[in-house]
Amino acid sequence: MAREVKLTKAGYERLMQQLLQERERLQEATRILQELMESSDDYDDSGLEAAKQEKARIEARIDSLEDILSRAVIIEGATTEVIGLGSVVELEDPVTGERLEVQVVSPAEASVLETPMKISDASPMGKALLGHREGDVLSLDTPKGKKEFRVVSVRG
């Protein structure tokens, strides 16, 4: 049996939306490819080849999204006591006072472009956070060396 993919409800909905967008892009890419094939006298045309490659990339992304979604298990609300999958965690650097908010999610949902930043539970930071509680101080390996953070809050 295929391995399940744990997703938050919001993550599942975001991936479903991406799938719908990719399907629309595939229709457009198919239309463009057909037009190029009909108007091209030379099948070695670079525009035609680029259109074929783009269509293949979109199809691969659709296959990937469909695979993830077919194996998805939506996790219930995270506990507010212990950091786990789905937890939104506010961290503070005790030296600088700088604060950072992250949500621990599965690798399929991870995205640094969102707020709060969604970090994978399989990443070094995600692994370090799991199981900690509000008030705990933890040490994380960063590209700039070890850094300590204090868990300010945990919410579901």
From TrEMBL:
The keyword Ribosomal protein does not apply. Residues 79-155 form the Transcription elongation factor GreA/GreB C-terminal domain. Residues 6-74 form the Transcription elongation factor GreA/GreB N-terminal domain. InterPro entries: GreA/GreB_C_sf, TF_GreA/GreB_CS, Tscrpt_elong_fac_GreA/B_C, Tscrpt_elong_fac_GreA/B_fam, Tscrpt_elong_fac_GreA/B_N, Tscrpt_elong_fac_GreA/B_N_sf. One of its GO terms (molecular function) is translation elongation factor activity. Signal peptide: none annotated. It holds the Pfam family GreA_GreB. Residues 2-68 form a coiled coil. Keywords: Coiled coil, Elongation factor, Protein biosynthesis, Transcription, Transcription regulation. GO terms for biological process: DNA-templated transcription elongation; regulation of DNA-templated transcription elongation. Belongs to the GreA/GreB family. PANTHER family: TRANSCRIPTION ELONGATION FACTOR GREA. This is Transcription elongation factor GreA. It comes from Thermus scotoductus. The lineage of its organism: Bacteria, Thermotogati, Deinococcota, Deinococci, Thermales.
